Each structure stands twice: as C-alpha cells, then as structure tokens.
Amino acid sequence: MGRRGARRRAYLGALSGLLAGYAALAAAELTAAAVRPQASPVVAVGGAAIDRTPTALKDWAIRNFGTNDKLVLQLGIVAVLAVLAVVLGLVAVRHRRVGSAGVLLFGVIGALAATTRPDSTGIADAAPSVIGALVGAWLLYALSGRARSTAAEEPPEGSTEPGWDRRGFITLATAAAVISTGAGLLARSSRGTQDVNAVSSRNGVKLPAPASPGKPTPAGAQLAIPGIGAFITSNKDFYRVDTALVVPMVDAMKWRLRIHGKGVTRPVTLTFDDLLRRPLIERAITLTCVSNEVGGPLIGNARWIGVSLADVLAESGVRPPSKGGPADQLVARSVDGMTIGSPVEDIMDGRDAMLALGMNGQPLPFAHGFPVRMLVPGLYGYVSACKWIEDIELTTFADYDAYWVKRDWAQQAPIKTESRIDTPKPSVSRKAGTVMVAGVAWAQHRGIEKVEVRVDDGPWERATLAEEDTRDTWRQWSYPWQATSGGHRLTVRATDGTGRTQTAKRADPVPDGASGYHSIRVEIG
Ligand SMILES: Nc1nc2c(c(=O)[nH]1)N[C@H]1C(S)=C(S)[C@@H](COP(=O)(O)O)O[C@H]1N2
Ligand SMILES: [Mo]
Asked: Is the pLDDT at 152 greater than 70, yes or no?
C-alpha cells in the first residue's frame, strides 16, 4: 500500500472511531434519559473512578478545582474516550471485527460500572451501556468497511492504492453525526423534563416560620473592611463538595427518611410533610470541609432551617452511649449511595444537630442536598453533613466504616481551630502606612476567644474581634498594621473558647483536617 493510501486509511479509521464513539455516547445518553440519568456510562464510570481515586489525588483535585472538580473529571473522561476511540478506529480499518469487539468491551465495562454503583436500581442500569455499545460497534464496523475497500476485504493483488467507498463512507458518516447530535440533544431535553417533578416540588415548598428563630445575626459580626468576605455566605457562593457527577434531583413529595438500627425501639419512616409539621429551628452554622487546606476556601456560613435531629432520634427511642444507648455511630445514607458516620454522642449532647430543609431562607438548593440534609455543628462535612439523605442507621464505629473512612480518612473528625487572612491578598503590593489586615477564624461549637497577628518574627499582637454570632459560627477579625516598606510576612493564629490556641504544627488534610498557621507575604512600597 502506498504511503498516501496508508495515511488516508489512518485518517478515515480515526474519524470512524470518533464517530462511533460519539454515536455510542449519544445512544447511551438517550437510553439513560429514559431509564435513569445515573445509569449513563459516563456518570457510572466517572462515579466508579471517583470512588477508586487515591485519596491524595482526590484531595488534590478538590483543592485545585474545588467546585469544578466534576467538570474537569468529565472533560478528562471525554478526552480519554476520544483517544481510545481513535485507537479503536485505527484497529478497525485493519481488523474490522477486533475494532467492533473493542467497542463492545467498553460497553461491558460501562454496564458493570452502572449496575454495581451503590445507587443502582438493578439490571436495567446496564441498558444505556449495552445499547450505546451495540450502536457504536455496528457503526464502526460499517464505517471501517467503507473506509478500506469497496468490495474486497483486502486490496486487489498488485494494487498500491486500496479502494474506498467514498460516497458510502461520507453518506454514513454524515448521517451518523446528524442522528447522534439529534439523539444527544433529545437526551438532554428529556433529562430536563424528568427533573420537572423535583423542580416543581421545590418550587412548591413554603417553609413555615421557625418556632425557634435563633437570634438574628448581630450587625457587628460583619466587618466593613474591603476584601473581607460576607459573614453569611450566599447560597450561590457557598462551596460545594461531593462525589455526585449528576446532582441528584429528588422529588420532595416522594422523599422518605427511614430511621432504624441498634437501640431504635420505634423505627419510623418520615415524609417531607412530617418534617414540616414539626417545630422548626433556624440556626447559623459554619460548615467546613476536611479537605480545606490552611488558608483555603472550603468553608461557608449559612442560616439553616430544619428540625432537631436529637428530638427525632429520642422519639425513636435512641439514647446516646453516655445514657446507655447501644449505638455510638449514626450512619446517614443518601439517595446517591454516600454514607456518612457521626458520633451519636455529639448529635445528642445538646448542640443544634439538624435535619435541614432550608438554607438562608430558601428551600435547600439541589446542589446542597434538597430536600433534606444533615448538619452537626463542630464536625467536618464528611462526618456530619449528608446531603440528599434518605436513611439513618444507628450502629457502632466498630461495626461499620462509612465511605470516606474506607478511603483513609479518620472515623471521627471535630473541626480544628483555624484562622485565615483574607486581606491583604498575598503578593499584592501596598503603600506604607496603616494597612488593615483582616480575616476569619473558626472553632465551631467551641467559639473563638482570641486572634493574634505576627509581622515577620515580631511578637504576637492581638487582633480586634468582630462581634460573635454564636460559637457554631466563624468570627471575623481585624488588625490595623503600621506597615513599613519592604517585604513582610504576616501570620495569624486563633485561640478557641476552651482557651486552646490552634497548633502551629503543619498537617495535611488527610486524615482529619489540615493544621498550621496561615501566613502570607506582602510587599510594601
Ligand atoms: N450525599 C453526599 N453528601 C455529602 C457529600 C457527598 O459527597 N455526598 N460530601 C460531604 C462533604 S465532604 C462536605 S464538606 C459537605 C459539603 O456540603 P456543601 O456541598 O453543601 O458545601 O457535604 C457532605 N455531604
Ligand atoms: Mo468535605
């Protein structure tokens, strides 16, 4: 075969592979829209990949991409699939059956992933992968046949240029591209209509005025210093961390929460209306992610509306270990198969652990757990804040390891006392004179008693604390610094309500939260 012929064959092979991959994904997405969005092979394989990603890498992704980590993963999956599709296309123009068999193999992988996800509803979840793979395998077979020769399997003896069915290839390739795009768009719009019930159930939620409103946020909690964040984080600015590639869209009217397990003498299944009929509490609680590095952004403070979890548990007969209860761990399960384990003792010790229905006056946003999530002041999110919760099981730490615990994180993780400099920004230059240094400090459920700032290797100077809201919220602070020219290092540390100063010892987020002082360099001109 001549060099031109070989190159053309390679191009056509690569194009066939890409088109077959595109058609396979479109067919799979359309099927998934009909079956269940979570059964899509991209979502299922992506979810399986998230579950198997080494903790260090996952933590790195959360810290570097934050809320965009899922988008980056999805783009990564598409890029990998495109490369594999090209490879299969190159194989297919030489060995048609091998190329198609390769596509089918990916279908098997997708089907296995979809049916073994923790939220899988059964064998029907294999359908998107199987149908996608059949479409892709057939298209690759058909295209690669047209790409290499009109009639003969191999070019005629003595010929240097293998023939190709130009018209047949172009017709089929165009048709495949058009139909796949149509199928993809249809999948998207029908997925939208599937979510209609969830969206309308959320629009229909009227949160009653809380029986226990909680005290209003004191005006003095918010400092009016440029560069310092809002004391109450808006819903749209609130950080998001979870393993869900597709945000679960739960219909509140169909939602149920089951409470059962060790020491539950009266197991119950609650509806959303059952919760709405209970006395509601409203509390400001600062939520923090264990993956937050020193100085990091994975922390937010909202006013949550919900029902007391301790009351609900007590009505089911649950007693904390200190009162002789047999269960020391409460495992919350979400509709997407997440498991989060919290100490029963903490939930029932009088703090405002809650089943939250509202966030800053709104029903929970879907991304933050609609219709109901758990919150326990003082504990990192991965051991307390289960979103899209549907099941609560009372058990023991000895008997059960929750999702993140199976992945190297600690079983129990109270939030560490930490502080952060929000202004000035690192490496921004400022003029000599008074520079306002300000930020936040947090030690949820212990409160913040003192914040100190150090310039270079100087003495620790007391910062001025903004008014405390509650000991479950973060606290802003400021320090007017008489800045002199040159490069300087600013460091901050906080002391919590028990009198303990945060540790200077640097620790990575794994296994139970980062520690160490936040410190920045600034240039004074
Ligand atoms: N269902 C579910 N709930 C979850 C998670 C998750 O991955 N799935 N992540 C937890 C973690 S690690 C944190 S820090 C908080 C974050 O809540 P947010 O996204 O509302 O800020 O949710 C927790 N609840
Ligand atoms: Mo987290």
From this structure: no
pLDDT tens-digit readout, 95-121: 999 999 999 999 999 999 999 998 888
Q: Which ligand is nearest to the CA of 384?
A: 1
Same domain, 391 and 428: no
First-to-final CA distance of the chain: 70
d(CA 61, CA 42): 19
For ligand 2, the distance from its centroid to the CA atom of residue 291, given in whole angstroms, is: 6
Residues 432, 372 within the same domain = no
Q: Whose CA is nearest to atom 6 of ligand 1?
A: 242
Number of domains in the chain: 3
| Inside any domain, residue 81 | yes
Rounded distance between C-alpha atoms, residue 79 and residue 132, angstroms: 18
Please report, for the domain that includes residue 497, its CATH number. 2.60.40.650
User: Averaged over 118-137, what is the pLDDT?
Assistant: 94
More confidently predicted of 60 and 375: 375
| Rounded-to-integer distance, Cα 181 and Cα 456, Å | 60
Copy the structure tokens of residue 415: 């939030």
Ligand 2 centroid distance, CA of 266 (Å): 32
Q: Is residue 30 part of a domain?
A: yes
What is the predicted pLDDT for the residue at 158? 53
Q: Please work out whether the CB of residue 289 comes within 6 Å of at least one atom of ligand 1.
A: yes
Task: Examine the pLDDT at 314 and tell me if it is beyond 60.
Answer: yes
Provide the 10 A C-beta neighbour count for residue 63: 18
Q: How far is the CA of 384 from the centre of ligand 2 (A)?
A: 9
Does residue 210 belong to any structural domain of this protein?
no
CA 11 to each of CA 93, 145, 176: distance values in angstroms, whole numbers, following the listed order? 10, 14, 17
pLDDT tens sequence across 160-193: 556 789 999 999 999 999 999 999 999 988 877 7
The residue whose C-alpha atom lies closest to atom 8 belonging to ligand 1 is 242
What is the average pLDDT value for the chain, to the nearest integer?
93
The reply to whether 228 and 361 lie within a common domain is: yes
**Minimal-distance CA residue to ligand 1 atom 13:** 381
Cis peptide before 414 (omega within 30 of 0): no
DSSP-derived letter for residue 155 is: P
Q: Is residue 208 part of a domain?
A: no
- Judge if the beta carbon of residue 242 lies within 6 A of ligand 1: yes
Note down the domain range covering 499. 418-524
When pLDDT is averaged across residues 300-327 and rounded to a whole number, the result is: 98
Ligand 1 centroid vs 413 CA: distance in angstroms? 14
Kindly state if the Cβ of 338 falls inside 6 Å of ligand 1. Answer: yes
334 lines ligand 1 (CB under 6 A): yes
298 and 426 both lie in a single domain: no
Centre of ligand 1 from the C-alpha of residue 415, in Å: 15
For ligand 1, is residue 386 a contact (CB within 6 Å)? yes
Q: What is the pLDDT of residues 332-370, one digit of tens each?
A: 999 999 999 999 999 999 999 999 999 999 999 999 999
Is the predicted pLDDT of residue 288 greater than 50, yes or no? yes
Inter-helix orientation angle 69-92/127-148, to 10°: 40
